[in-house]
Amino acid sequence: MTDTDRTGTLHAGFSSPDATAQPWSLVLETLAEAEVFWISTVRPDGQPHVTPLIAVWRDGALYFCTGGDEVKARNLAANPECVLTTGCNRMGSGFDVVVQGRAVSVTDEARLAVVAGDYESKYGWVFRVEDGRFVGASGNVAEVFEVRPVTVYGYGRGAQYSATSWRFSS
Known about the structure:
Blueprint: E1 9-10, H1 24-33, E2 37-42, E3 48-53, E4 56-58, E5 61-66, H2 71-78, E6 81-86, E7 94-106, H3 109-123, E8 127-130, E9 133-136, E10 141-157, E11 162-167
Antiparallel strand pairs: 1-11, 2-3, 2-6, 4-5, 5-10, 6-7, 7-10, 8-9, 9-10, 10-11
């Protein structure tokens, strides 16, 4: 998937009567500017696990990091399918984005260096890249994951409500 403009499908049953599909540019803006995301993974026993994290958008994918022994990392090792969400918590305005995809471990050090730069630019977090992972200032080691969207949903609120989806080849 590239970051070019795409046409979404409006879901009329979940939208105001005169609503139109939201533009892909709004999704890109939301993903780039969002500070907090929520990741949903599935535990080996089938129970859901949801937790907040920070992420960066680069080249058509979301990147996040987590300790290898954290629940989300263990869940992704067993089942890489996940959902990342972001948006706002106001009923009368805003735009929420839901990204469904597969979390893939990133170990390429050149790619990790670029993503580490994104984390520093966006959040002020500094990581060095070592042995295919991030290492923080305190010495904590984090695995890095890439999620390329398979399906994206955008939910607009305000004068009109809209539900728009975009599908991509997996």
